[in-house]
Every structure is written in C-alpha cells, then in structure tokens.
C-alpha cells in the first residue's frame, strides 16, 4: 500500500497549525492505536467468548455487553498514560474517569463512546467508536464534570472509527473531514477518502419507524411526505435505511448523502432524547457540519447547546443540508 498514512496526515496538519506543540498529534496517535486494538477485538466476534453470561447494566440502565467493557478498557489504557489528557469521560462510566496519579496530566479532555451500536455485535453488523476532544479550562488539571460541560462548538477534534467490512477512521480538526482505511497487513490507516462532503440533497432517510406512533407532528409530516413518494408533495420516491449503529448511518451519509434522525417523541420526552450529546451527537454534528451537512434537534443547532450533564440526551436530526432545513422549518410551522 502506498499513500499518505494517518500519522503523516496528522503531522502535516500540525505543521500548518501555528504554535502547535505536537501534544495533540501524539494524543491522536494514541487514539489511532486504541481504534486498531478495538477493531481486532470486535473482529474476533464470538471467538472472544465473552457474550452472554457476563452481561451487566451501565449508567443508562442498558444491558452492557462484555465487549462494551473491553473496548472501554482498551480506550482508557491506550490514553491515560500519555500525559496529554487532563480528563476522560465515557458512555460506560457514570463519572469522569480519574486518571491515576502516577501519570502526568495534559491540556485536553476526551469524551467517548467506545462501542456504538453494541446491540449489533452479536449479529455481526457494523459498530463503531466515537470520540470528542475538548480543551480543559485554563489551569485545570483535575477536571470535574462542569469542566466537560462545553458546547460542541468548542470541540477541537471529533472522529469515529467504523468497524465494518473494512475498518475506517474518520476525523475532523475543524478543517474538513478526512477518511482513512486500515490496511491490516501494514497495521496503518491510509488516507482513502480526502475531503469528505455531504451532498445537500438526498432521497434517503434513516429513522426507527417502530417509534412512529410516539413522534411529534413535524417528524410525522416529514416521513409521511417521503413515503408518499412520486405521488406525494415531494414528487419523488425516497429510500429508507436503519442500521441501528449511528456510526454506520453517519458514515453512509458522508459517502452518499442522506438524513438520519433519532427525534424527540412522547416516550423519550422525559429523558430529552435517545442519543447522548457529549459523545454521540456533538462529535457527529461537528463531522457532519465540517462535511457541509447540517445537524439540529429540530429546534436548535446541536453544536450550540450548552450541556448540563455528562450523559445528557438530545434529539438528533442530521445529514444532507436541505433535508435537515426542511425538518427544522416543519418544527417552526
Ligand atoms: O435500538 P434503536 O432504537 O434502533 O437505537 C439505535 C441507536 O442506538 C445506538 O445504538 C446508541 O448507541 P450505543 O450502542 O452506544 O448505546 C445508536 O448507535 C443507534 O442509532
Ligand atoms: Mg452509542
Ligand atoms: Mg456505546
């Protein structure tokens, strides 16, 4: 394999960033290593031999498959020692992870979903890892929850790894979105998808229609119009997909456009939504916006939300700009 490796790409970005110390580059390198290790663990599938009897509940009250725990541990052990982080927080831990005192502290905070779409693991469907990097507030070396409570616009980097038919890492540092594919023989990610962009228009949408009876009127209207196809007000046929792995859905949208939503519904009202803002909605929204798409709750831009808790949930509508805007307009109507 020839071409630009992810390490070369990150170093090149560092050279262009004024005043960069290399700390961020090293942190990204550790994330790359963590994703390679997780890819191997996910790939082992049933050979890992840990599904089933060892299930426990996570802070969201969901059944936590053993692989959730394994991947969470991989992410922590790959990053905690680095000295580039002040704090870490994960979907799988109620409170921020306390970096052991024996390790030096750095200036960044990382939030992550080590295994997204984990209900798909035992049916051998794509899953992923999502991460979001923030700066720790000036002088904070032992961050508390409130130090993580920054809106998505403050992210310095967001990315995901997709463990699908190939393993990919998709990354933004605020200068567009680039995709890298893992060459297993070399053990390196190579730049295969430079400057990923989302077309403004689409005729594909993704939503869990089993929740339809609970949806709010604007979402009912949107989906109904899509389903009417050529004969309806949209005047064209739409296609539908639902993988139940947000990483896979966002990746499909980055490749060929589309709309993804996990909207608010009467069942989710109390929780605020299904997806978690800090390590699902925010990083994915940054990636989607950087690729020219849009991301909203239906009522406000997700990246502008001031979060108030680590595991806060939000409604999510993201993807091809014109479709997201149409849904936002329906919410206003
Ligand atoms: O089971 P549902 O309602 O289809 O929900 C699927 C959604 O839940 C998630 O799996 C949540 O992620 P986790 O697997 O990390 O909990 C999203 O990736 C996906 O979009
Ligand atoms: Mg998730
Ligand atoms: Mg998860």
Automatic annotation (TrEMBL):
Domain of life: Bacteria
Gene Ontology biological process terms in this record: fructose 1,6-bisphosphate metabolic process; fructose 6-phosphate metabolic process; fructose metabolic process; gluconeogenesis; sucrose biosynthetic process
Domain annotation Fructose-1-6-bisphosphatase class 1 C-terminal: ranges: 198-331
UniProt keyword terms in alphabetical order: Carbohydrate metabolism, Cytoplasm, Hydrolase, Magnesium, Metal-binding
Reactions this protein catalyses: beta-D-fructose 1,6-bisphosphate + H2O = beta-D-fructose 6-phosphate + phosphate
GO cellular component, one term: cytosol
Needed co-factor(s): Mg(2+)
Binding site for substrate: 116-119, 208, 274
Location(s) in or outside the cell: Cytoplasm
Alphabetized GO MF terms: fructose 1,6-bisphosphate 1-phosphatase activity; magnesium ion binding
Residues where Mg(2+) 2 binds: 113, 116, 280
Listed pathway(s): Carbohydrate biosynthesis
Positions with a binding annotation for Mg(2+) 1: 91, 113, 115
Domain (Fructose-1-6-bisphosphatase class I N-terminal) ranges: 4-194
Enzyme Commission number: 3.1.3.11
One Pfam family per UniProt: FBPase
Cofactor: how and how many bound: Binds 2 magnesium ions per subunit.
Protein family according to the UniProt entry: Belongs to the FBPase class 1 family.
PANTHER family, alphabetized: FRUCTOSE-1,6-BISPHOSPHATASE-RELATED, SEDOHEPTULOSE-1,7-BISPHOSPHATASE, CHLOROPLASTIC
Assembly and oligomerization: Homotetramer.
Protein name stated in the entry: Fructose-1,6-bisphosphatase class 1
Species the sequence originates in: Novimethylophilus kurashikiensis
